[in-house]
Amino acid sequence: MNDREGTSSMCTPSADTGAATAAYTFATWSKQRDWTPLHVVQAEGCHFVDAAGRRYLDFSSQLVCSNLGHGNAAIAEAIAEQARRGAYLSPAFAMEVRAEAGRRVAAVMPGRLDRFFFSTSGTEANEAAFKIARAVTGRSKIISRYHSYHGSTAGSIAATGDHRRWGADPSGIAAGVRFAPDAYCYRCPFGWHYPACDLACAKYVEYMIEHEGDIAAVVVEPVVGTNGVLVPPEGYLARLREICTRRGVLLIADEVMTGWGRTGEWFAVNHWGVVPDILTTAKGVTGAYVPLGVTAVSRDVAAYFDDHALPHGHTYEGHPVALAAAIAAIREYQTQNLIGRARQLGLYLGEQLRTLERAHPSIGDVRGIGLFWAIELTKDRSQRQPFNTRADKASGRPIVVNAVVAEAMRQGVYVMGWINHLVVAPPLIIAEEAIAEGVRGLDRALDVADALVDV
Ligand code: PLP
Questions:
Q1: Which of 264, 300, 261, 258 is nearest to 280 (CA)?
Q2: 254 lines ligand 1 (CB under 6 A)
Q3: 226 CA to middle of ligand 1, Å?
Q4: Are strands 141-145 and 177-180 parallel, antiparallel or unpaired?
Q5: Predicted TM-score of the model (pTM)
Q6: The dihedral formed by the CA atoms of 153, 159, 163 and 164, expressed in degrees to the nearest 10
Q7: In the chain, is it the N or the C terminus that has fewer CB atoms within a 10 Å radius of its CB?
């Protein structure tokens, strides 16, 4: 018997579920000591319930993925039905579920992005995108941005701009990644203001393409997600599209978080009428009921592989159960009109969060689109001084936003916090009353940060 089995035998099924989970599994991106995961016993609609019977509003759709809420019967049934009919067959075989998922995903993709590599996560979707971009262009480097997260596997973490790369591929250089300035107007890296800046952050990407050489692709989250819900200024994405086209560089839109109605469009690029050469997505494609990643490529990109071998593959590529879930999820988005609903309810959510901004001196900025919002905290509004830095987060120092998140949980609201901001991104099925419930919880929780503001 090893130590962990010893721990397990001491556990009673309910009380020690948290302890056993902590003993047998890893907490992601954090030190393991003192990890005490909450034991959740049920999730339904926009709420979940812990083992003590306390109910929480899911105000971040877990990791911005449970877009359809919890306990959707139609998706559960589609999964069960496919598992009975043919849970797994090699990707080499044609199956009705594969053909139908292809047709359904193609029907909602922007432009003519209608050839897909179906994997099992966002990071894998990006790995495939980078490999494809390098194969098609015959070039090796990728331009990404500092405020970005593209996944945890080798290529995707190298292309990640946030501190999670520091321990994995400190320079990004090993994997041929270069980082461009962010379209982060509240903290413009040049200290300029839009529109007088004339989109210097986009123009600098062209400068990089010219002077770096060997650039295969530019990868962007059209609205940066975890790193701040950064909605780009008008014209930014169109300018990147124009630069990439003129320079023969592929544009990859990472819509792992922003896809599937989150921003009030099927995909965030639609807000600006931009069609990338490659679009990657995951999360909301199945509403997170089953893992699925998608790398969607344009016809031009796909045509390259007519006479060149695709240098990629997975056992679980095009997994039938995941694709059945995607078909059912797309049907739910459509029949419940969830994309339009996100657009509409987003206006209400934005208004409510701006009311919080007026009431709480610790809020520096509120920004968002659709049902995708950030509340950025500051200890000094006039100077836009952040409470914490990436280095604080990377080293595991206590950070203010975590105290706000903990208080929100005490208030019955689960919300994602990241360094200096909260990410408010409820399931698209949420009702106005539940939004008001979440905002009330945040109102109380933000007092924790207000008490720490410099006066
Ligand atoms: N890309 C973006 C924009 C993401 O937000 C994430 C995860 O949050 C990923 C990629 C990685 O996705 P996954 O965790 O499914 O590998």
A1: 258
A2: yes
A3: 9
A4: parallel
A5: 0.96
A6: -10
A7: C
